[in-house]
Amino acid sequence: MGEPRPFIAASLATDRSAERSRLQPAPPLRGSRIGIADPRGVRREEVQATASVIDPPSLSLSLKGGGQSERPTLSQAFGAAARLLRQGGIETPELDARLLLCHATGLSHEDYVARGDAALPPEAAARFATSIDRRLRGEPVSRILGVREFYGRPFRLDASTLDPRPDTETLVEAALAVVGGTGSRQAPLRLLDLGTGTGCILITLLAELPRATGVGVDLSHAALRLARENAEALGVGNRADFLASDWLEGLSGAFDLVVANPPYIPAAEVRGLGPEVGHDPETALDGGPDGLAAYRRIAPRLKGVLRPGGIVLFEMGVDQTEAVRRLLVGSGLKPRDDWLWRDLGGRPRVVGARA
Ligand SMILES: C[S@@+](CC[C@H](N)C(=O)[O-])C[C@H]1O[C@@H](n2cnc3c(N)ncnc32)[C@H](O)[C@@H]1O
Questions:
Q1: 234-259 burial: b if 16+ Cβ within 10 Å, else e
Q2: Ligand 1 nearest atom to the CA of residue 223, by list position
Q3: How many A from CA of 51 to the centre of ligand 1?
Q4: Residue 131 burial (CB < 10 Å; 0-12/13-18/19+)?
Q5: I need a labelling partner for 185 at 20 to 30 A (CA). Which of 84, 87, 212, 331 fits?
């Protein structure tokens, strides 16, 4: 969870940047949202029927202005949408408009560049208008696309899952560093990922550690289904199991490595966010009164699932390092002072300990 950075993420004003910023309200819309010209030369009722899920007046992109009757080209649609997004206070209007236009048309970026003069088909125009409208309402691009790149691989996401954050790649880096420090990446390690969500951490580790096998645990059955799909799509399905469990309740085993990115936002901060901003499920965010509730539940049971000398790595909030380490010590684990990994912004993000 964390700071936006290039790729799709660059456009995501709702990321947990500076720890809480994903939860900041979206910028207010300026003026009336979207004009109603129908520049595509398509009968307006035809377009609106295609996009029946949204409020028609807010939908029709003013792609060329002035109610011109011919269809806009891809370039014109892009330009109009980017203008709307900029006017709406979106930080990366061109990037977002391009990603959403490619998504609406099904074109790759290369195809889009090569075919900028082609007319935008009406169905794609309606999809594009819907996407731009959602973006103007503050929805992250990754949620609209239903996919987020994490550690160089595409992960599907939906309403049941956290949108994987670039900062969580720090946890992956930490895991690969400790594995590299203790043996070969070819070792047949057993991994456990607590609160797996899209499965991004476990699946990435399985992809990077070709002989490892692992278990992803979550309370959400819907998230587990999606994680399973992601594992299959990314070619590690035969080495991954996904289990419904309340953290470590009922789990046993002798894992080499336990990783977890549990909810760690203090509850009052989650509740103060307002309904428009919460695009991530609350169960993925709410860490109880002080943000540490999940660590308190997980830590005492870790020795029961780690082999002797096994390692746990926790992602945490930037101001939680010492509290999480104390919980690990109190549970009989041995944190190492040098096991502290920072995100790209230099903020402490991951701590680790041995059983
Ligand atoms: C912060 S999200 C992390 C998701 C994913 N690992 C990632 O990094 O993008 C926390 C995850 O923990 C799950 N979770 C919350 N409470 C849980 C519990 N009691 N037992 C198991 N999983 C839980 C949520 O459903 C959510 O998927």
A1: bebbebbebeeeebbeebeeebbbbb
A2: 27
A3: 34
A4: buried
A5: 331
Over the stretch 53-95, which tens digit does the pLDDT of each residue have?
A: 233 233 344 444 444 457 899 999 999 999 999 999 999 999 9
Q: Token pair 């082999």 is at which residue?
A: 307
- Locate all alpha helices (DSSP H) within 249-338, ordered by sequence: 267-271, 293-298, 321-330
Top pLDDT among 138 and 302 is at 302
Mutate which of 162, 169, 193, 269 for ligand 1? The one with the most ligand atoms within 8 Å of its CB, which is 162
Sequence-separated contacts (24+) of 286-293 with Cβ below 8 Å: 287/262, 287/263, 287/317, 290/266, 290/323, 291/264, 291/265, 291/266, 291/317, 291/320, 292/264, 292/320, 292/323, 292/324, 292/327, 293/263
The domains found in the chain, sorted by start residue, are 27-137 (no CATH), 162-354 (3.40.50.150)
Which amino acid residue places its CA nearest to atom 13 of ligand 1? 195
Ligand 1 atom with minimal separation from the 262 CA: 10
Ligand 1 lining (C-beta closer than 6 Å)? 1, 162, 164, 168, 195-198, 200-201, 217-220, 223, 246-247, 261-263, 283-284
Q: Whose CA is nearest to atom 14 of ligand 1?
A: 195
- Assign 132 a pLDDT band (cuts: 50, 70, 90): very high
DSSP category for residue 286: B
- DSSP-derived letter for residue 9 is G
With tokens 């935008």, the residue in question is: 120
